[in-house]
User: Fold this.
Amino acid sequence: MSRNYISKNTVDKIISARSVVFFTGAGISAESGIPIFRGKDGIWNKLKPDELANFNSFLKNPDLVWEWYNHRKKVIHESEPNKGHLTIAEFEKILPDVIVVTQNIDNLHKRAGSTNVYELHGNIERNYCIKCNKFYNGEIELKDSAPRCECGGLIRPDVVWFGEYLPQEQFIASEKAAQDSDVFFIVGTSAVVYPAASLIYTAKENGAYMVEINLEPTEASGIVNDSLLGKAGDILPDLLNEVKNKLS
Ligand code: APR
Assistant:
């Protein structure tokens, strides 16, 4: 597919930008084989978020929640960053300031080589005790029940569940990144989950040039300057090539 669907204006904005932010969601990891949450193939069509991604349900049935997160961890460990993740890491090498603000807990941006990554919803590779807050990173051996801390407390994944606050330090840094961004990409997110989605409007209000990359229009489509419909793993490499051509 020729790249003439990418506007000259979008390429010029990227090249002249002091700071570029990539705000990403589950859609950027879909091509790595990690299911998204909403839409016809979405996880939340089959499973109940209030049973699996909710603190009170965790207290009621920690084994079920752990079974679910270990299943997700297994899928994530069997997957690789795709062209979308890898291209964003490439942009970081050729542009002055590139920041990734992700809603994903799959660690794939970091595995792709991105170094400036803010994780709004936590990271599945980290865990902590809900009683003494001791952190357990990496593999936690799952016996036939939810893991316990040496203090006896229940250990939970360090991810944000519905109704919980986002990690303040990550959110505040992401807000600053959105305010300072000259170009703000919205990649593979339905843009319906708050407060994460509020960053889109923070960037817009602060004058960023907004570019959406998604298979289909979303809640945010009405405010973007350029809407590139298709797979992130196809569009991002095309965009990078256009930018590299212009820089060379
Ligand atoms: N390329 C680009 N976009 C894609 C692709 C792809 N290959 N595949 C799917 N998409 C788009 C879908 O069209 C949809 O708009 O990605 C979006 C995924 O939306 P959601 O499933 O709602 O995921 P997300 O927006 O990340 O959800 C936000 O909700 O469930 C919670 O905590 C969870 O972080 C998550 C948050």
